[in-house]
Amino acid sequence: MKLRTVVATALLLSHGVVQTVRADNPEEVVRWTISASSAATLARGSPASLDLSGEIQAGWHVYGLEQHPGGPTALRITIDANTSITAAGPTSGSVPERVHDTHFGFDTQLYSHPFVIHLPVRVTAGLAAGRKLIPVSVRFQACSDRECLLPRTVHLSVPIDVSAAD
Q: Whole-model pTM?
């Protein structure tokens, strides 16, 4: 009976430690998803858009794409090396909040609610037909009013289907 109590206590404690680690984990503070917003099948050479969504836990924020030099780590979204698509213009999407940051002494741009960033891309001409997996990296910094987590890069991927006809 005593061994069961020790095992049960150890399991509860280990569960609590896992929960604490998860709460400090940037992937848990911000949930990232990515999708291709264009037609189900894309023609070679055609434009498309990749849509990156961020869902932020209450009490936290992610800094926006544009930041003052010497400020917080700006959100950076990059299409990793691949032979399927290339960037095709500037990003657009949800407008960030402008907030005066007393730590830095100037205004910063941030997202504290769910947001979407659209990345315009173009499918590579001459690409073989079929399903392609597009790698995307997201560099961000998440902060609350009490603490900032270290900047982090997450790696995502999104499938696209390329048609056989141009």
A: 0.78
